[in-house]
Amino acid sequence: MLSPITIDELATVIQMTVKREFETINNSQKPEPDNDYLSRKETCKILGISLPTLNDYTKRGLVPSYRIGARIRYKKEEVLKSLSYRQFTKKVGRAA
Fold this sequence. Notes:
Structural class: mainly alpha
């Protein structure tokens, strides 16, 4: 049985339905924690250090690294956390 409905009412019903579906999809796709892996170069850029310094910090345990296949990666969250802890020492120039 058909019910009398105006075009404006139909448009409103369609808009509300589409909006509700988009909200459902949006809520189901919550972002995961920021556990992106960074390359060595990306990590150096964030920390403002050179590759040899990054190797030293990795060996000393200041920045944890992960081997994925043949590549070394760093978790972005851990790199940013290491910045906040200020674990890195400033280089002191040599005496002349």
